[in-house]
Amino acid sequence: MPKDPQIFRAKKQAGEPIVMLTCYDFPTAQLEDAAGVDIIFVGDSVGTNMLGYAAETEVTMADMLHHTRAVRRGVERAYLLADLPYRAYETPQLALENAHLLLAAGADGVKLEGGVDQAPIVAALVADGIAVCGHIGFTPQTLGTKGRIQGKTLEQGQVIVRAAQAMERAGAFLLVMELVTEPISRLITEQLTIPTIGIGSGRYCDGQVLVVTDLLGLSTFERKLNKRYENLHERVGTAMSQYVQEVRERQFPTEANAFQNISEEEVTQLRAWVQRGMPDE
Ligand code: KIV
Description:
CATH topology of the largest domain: TIM Barrel
Helix content: 40-55%
Order of helices and strands: HEHEHHEHEHEHHEHEEHHH
Structural class: alpha/beta
Distance between the termini: 61 Å
Radius of gyration: 25 Å
Number of strands: 8
Shape: elongated
CATH class of the largest domain: Alpha Beta
CATH superfamily of the largest domain: Phosphoenolpyruvate-binding domains
Strand content: 5-15%
Bound molecules: 3-methyl-2-oxobutanoic acid
Number of helices: 12
Strand order of the largest sheet: 1-2-3-4-5-6-7-8
């Protein structure tokens, strides 16, 4: 039974920030759930961050289903949101089929990218009882992999504000805004009754989302929108080099890692049997 997304509207009304974080696997899902993340999000950024793809456009429904199932196994408390990947929602019918597959894989709701043009797709999903999160501003599925700031002029601002309102009117319960200038994301957050979640969109959104591999410092590139809370790239690299060295120098495993659950007498008998050429006895 999908979780009720209306809790997030209540959080907006109460002025309580909503915490969202991407997630692609079971152990990370368990950690995020225990840390108190509100929305655990299987983003199509799984492609570039976990699968070695060059762009979001390579991500398939099969990829999204595989990772959504893995994350579902690790989430007990949080809301689980999953991305509809590129070309998975080109028509209302296709969007419905794929959204239902993501729900069957364990998602509580789905996210899709796009502005005014995508409103009919959102409306069709919502009419079928599916909780939908919109995603406006910079949209990697159509704008490529290089982040570009959105909302730098009055005209761009009008496009983004219209997109936000179209998403709310179509029935979206949440709106992600990526790389939108802070004054525009602030205006939209004030205008909408649904909560906004920012990534690189400044301080005034109702919540924030980051890519978990960026937050943990597993990825190596620097992004202005990110804050690295750990440097896993360095720490994991150091741990692996140490393991390589210790195996090569026979420092691992030690006696403490080994199992001795056979008597010396039986080992002596076994050695003698091997020396006799292992006869059938
Ligand atoms: O897939 C993703 O990581 C996203 C970000 C905006 C959070 O959509």
